[in-house]
């Protein structure tokens, strides 16, 4: 699994990565797991987990998905837990943006963050050629609605590939691996509505 590492020019880790790393360490400690136990449960190496918790790397979407699966939460729930306060209204300028530069994925949390809510809206952007495979859902049976705003997106779920063009919307429940691919040379922008089972 490829991770985004910090270059020599960067002296300090990204503040979001620092808060995220601290929260990941808290979640592991709450369960009383060692790094080895978490590695066995998630399929991620101990060294990668340790580096993510210390904010030495910026975790990829695939890595966060595996950890969300182990901890029984969606990525938006995890990211909302590192916000200072939970508001009912989040202006566009205040919406949290997270980027996986290794895979060409940008994720904007559109819904106001709150760990207890069952539904959320996320804006996703993939660069041309981006290909992200998730080996499991963060929460089994998660309901997703994928609405393409610009460009085209190929989504594979339960071994069925769906091609979505601008304006198309796909609804599915996620039980196993999924894959998001952008073959559009312009990239793709889409809304992902997520509903917990």
Question: What does the model show?
Answer:
The chain has 197 residues and is an alpha+beta fold. It has two domains: 4-80, lambda repressor-like DNA-binding domains (434 Repressor (Amino-terminal Domain)); 92-195, Jelly Rolls (Sandwich). It has five helices and twelve strands. It has helices spanning 15-31, 35-42, 46-53, 61-71, 75-80, and strands spanning 4-5, 57-58, 97-100, 105-109, 119-126, 131-134, 142-150, 153-157, 160-164, 169-174, 178-181, 188-195. Strand 3 (97-100) and strand 4 (105-109) form a beta hairpin. Helix 2 (35-42) crosses helix 3 (46-53). Mean pLDDT is 89; it is low at 1-10.
N-to-C SSE string, H for helix and E for strand: EHHHEHHEEEEEEEEEE
Spatial strand sequence of the major β-sheet: 3-4-5-12-7-10
CATH architecture of the largest domain: Sandwich
Mean pLDDT rating:
89
Query: What structural class do you assign from the helix and strand content?
Result: alpha+beta
Concise summary:
This protein has 197 residues and is α+β, with helices and mostly antiparallel strands.
Topology:
Blueprint: E1 4-5, H1 15-31, H2 35-42, H3 46-53, E2 57-58, H4 61-71, H5 75-80, E3 97-100, E4 105-109, E5 119-126, E6 131-134, E7 142-150, E8 153-157, E9 160-164, E10 169-174, E11 178-181, E12 188-195
Antiparallel strand pairs: 1-2, 3-4, 4-5, 5-12, 6-11, 7-10, 7-12, 8-9, 8-11
Q: What distinguishing features does this structure have?
A:
197 residues; alpha+beta; Jelly Rolls; single chain; four-stranded antiparallel β-sheet; globular; six-stranded antiparallel β-sheet; 5 helices; 12 strands; disordered N terminus
């Amino acid at each position: 699994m490829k991770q985004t590492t910090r270059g020599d020019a960067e002296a300090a880790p990204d503040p979001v990565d620092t808060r995220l790393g601290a929260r990941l360490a808290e979640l592991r400690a709450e369960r009383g797991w060692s790094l080895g136990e978490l590695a066995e449960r998630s399929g991620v190496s101990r060294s990668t987990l340790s580096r993510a918790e210390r904010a030495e790397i910026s975790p990829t979407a695939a890595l966060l998905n595996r950890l969300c699966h182990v901890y029984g939460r969606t990525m938006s729930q995890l990211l909302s837990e590192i916000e200072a306060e939970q508001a009912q209204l989040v202006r566009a300028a205040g919406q949290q943006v997270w980027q996986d530069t290794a895979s060409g994925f940008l994720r904007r949390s559109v819904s106001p963050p709150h760990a207890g809510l069952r539904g959320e809206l996320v804006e996703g952007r993939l660069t041309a050629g981006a290909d992200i495979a998730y080996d499991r859902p963060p929460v089994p049976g998660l309901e997703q609605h994928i609405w393409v705003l610009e460009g085209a997106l190929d989504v594979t779920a339960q071994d069925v590939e769906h091609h979505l063009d601008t304006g198309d919307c796909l609804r599915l429940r996620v039980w196993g691996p999924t894959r998001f691919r952008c073959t559009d040379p312009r990239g793709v922008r889409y809304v992902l509505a997520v509903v917990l089972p």
